[in-house]
Design brief:
Length: about 190
């Protein structure tokens, strides 16, 4: 029981720290929401000030954080500045695609990683084992964003075999599923 309480307290502290870091990262970035919504060069200063007031950006940082945290805790994630839709609606609309992508990546990863691990174990200390371990090591060593760019450049741009964006067909799942799946397969193999 004490272990569970410690883990819950630890999780709460970590989540609070993540919220502070996220909040501060958004505040120390160059510009603010008003510079995203309006061109600061051509927009009159009073319009920028009114927008900052409406968004609460003219309040002290502590007050801004309190509003940010209370909105997070109540599930109010605000409205998208670009589409003017509630963020919860945008996330809910993408949730189905996320589940499909995660399931496809999981099946790909374990369908590739476990057989590769079994094959490497059956041929221990041979070229098969060394090759599989090398591929798994390189896959884990390359940052995921670099691997994603390489896949897009090779299969989407150079060879023009796969779409580089979208969610309308099964072909759109191949690159993201492969990217996530290759890393999971390398972990499953290891």
């Amino acid at each position: 029981m004490l272990y569970t309480l410690r883990r819950v307290a630890y999780t709460a502290v970590v989540m609070l720290l993540v919220s502070v870091v996220t909040f501060l990262a958004l505040r120390v970035a160059p510009g603010d929401v008003t510079t995203f919504l309006y061109n600061p060069v051509t927009t009159p200063p009073e319009v920028l000030q009114a927008a900052a007031h409406r968004l609460g950006l003219d309040q002290p940082l502590v007050v801004q954080y309190w509003h940010y945290l209370s909105d997070l805790l109540t599930g109010d994630f605000g409205v998208s500045y670009t589409s003017r839709e509630p963020v919860t609606t945008i996330v809910a609309n993408a949730f189905g695609y996320t589940l499909i992508l995660a399931a496809a990546a999981f099946l790909f990863a374990y369908g590739l990683g476990i057989p590769a691990g079994v094959l490497a174990a059956l041929h221990k200390d041979t070229w098969v084992d060394r090759t599989i371990n090398s591929i798994a090591g390189v896959t884990l060593a390359i940052p995921e964003f670099v691997l994603a760019l390489l896949l897009v450049i090779l299969f989407g741009v150079t060879l023009d075999w796969l779409p580089v964006s979208g969610a309308g067909s099964w072909e759109c799942l191949i690159m993201p599923r492969s990217l996530s799946g290759l890393r999971l397969a390398a972990c499953a193999h290891a």
